[in-house]
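Data card: per-record layout.
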Amino acid sequence: MIYLDNAATSFLKPPAVERAVLRAMRRCASPGRGGYEAAMEAADRVFECRALASELFDCDAENVVFTSNATHALNLAIKTLVKPGGKAVISGFEHNAVVRPLHALGAEVTVAGRKLFDPADTIASFDRAITPETDAVICTHVSNVFGYCLPVEEIAALCWQRGVPFILDASQSAGVLPVSLRALGASFAAMPGHKGLYGPQGTGLLLCGRIPKPLMEGGTGSLSRLAEMPDFLPDRAEAGTQNVAGICGLAAGMRFVKSVGIERILAHEKKICAMLASAIEDTEAKVYTGENQCGVLSIAVPGDCEDFAQTLAENGIAVRAGLHCAPLAHESAGTIDCGTIRFSPSALTSLRDGEAAARTIRSVAKKIASEG
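The structure for this 372-residue chain is written out next.
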């Protein structure tokens, strides 16, 4: 199988990730729950992961909160800043992990920047939309459907100038693009551990520029006499037993990213996407590409995109088809009725696999067109 669905989850992991998970399962108990060797080793490994994240994303280690995924992290951030019935500004390319929490809050949502691969329009639209009454601005760094890299530095600057909190969804950019909590002046940045950071599923990070409100309460291993959650990070946002094995795997994944370098990873992913786009540009498929694009590529085909993806699967190519949990992005791009087929390589996708996938995708596109 040639796996091209890394925007959903990185399926191929560096071998060190598996080794780290197994080692943790054999050697680590719960951090902060005892002074014996297995508990202390767990505490050391968990702190190492926080320190790695703080180095990669330019924030203090204690402000790194472990979550179960990016959705968990975004819920923490959004429900800290947006009051029920409050006001939020979001981009036209947000995932349901942003849209649904805002809907649940009954928030008044303004959608800004709906032109694909047009950063100037995106900035101008946010400039018009952000007002002093805005509770928070939430923006994805990279569209999970089209790979559009949004101008988040400029959007964050607009928020800073107007005293409006900014939340970055780095689900598709962490491990591929520079992300600096300090440089952005963001209140929060949310990211999964299992995509571009190559960690296990069930891991995520919330980088905190301020103290979040707890989503749930429980044991933290600290200040146990208190009936309420501690008022300091990371304890305030980390109730219950942590996913120590997953955190150890995430640390190994981040070490891999650091050793390869995000610039090399991005260049490699873009090279493979360019191969795929070139292979089908003279077919009946519509290819969505632009200058401000990461290693995520979508195409629209005549007929049912799910059928196209299934045919690819039968030929050993794993992709994602449909609306990708981001109907807002499809509305913005005009693909809400047809959906798209998405290709998303990783640092571990070989150029040989990219070339083989390009040949297969072209063949399937030509065959379906001739049959239609």
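Known properties of this structure: DSSP finds twelve helices and 13 strands in the chain. The chain has two domains: 15-260, 261-371.

See the next section for split statistics.
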